[in-house]
Design goal:
The chain is mostly helical. It contains 2 helices and no strands.
């Protein structure tokens, strides 16, 4: 009907009213506006929830990376302590060698 230019808006409204009547739905244009606004608000909330989910995922990833960094820093500190001890042992070894050499 639309393509042929025979579409009548009044006819559409009557068809809509009959359909709503058969479906036992009361036509309420104000209610439709309210429903539309609520739907729009829900869509906005849904988008915000998606962003929140992404932020939570990023936060979790960030926390995991911080934990790994803390572990690396602990390992680095431990490594440095071990190197210091080795250095001290080397000094002691040299001193012992000198003492041994001087005694003979």
């Amino acid at each position: 009907l639309i393509k042929e230019g025979e579409w009548d808006n009044k006819e559409f409204i009557k068809m809509q009213e009959k359909l709503l009547e058969q479906l036992q739905i009361k036509h309420n244009s104000d209610g439709n506006v309210v429903i539309s606004e609520k739907l729009s608000a829900l869509e906005k909330l849904d988008k915000k929830l998606e962003k929140l989910d992404k932020l939570e995922t990023l936060e979790k990833s960030y926390c995991e990376k911080l934990e790994k960094l803390d572990k690396l820093e602990t390992l680095e500190k431990s490594h440095c302590e071990i190197l210091d001890k080795l250095e001290t042992l080397n000094k002691i070894e040299k001193l012992l060698e000198e003492m041994h050499t001087n005694n003979f």
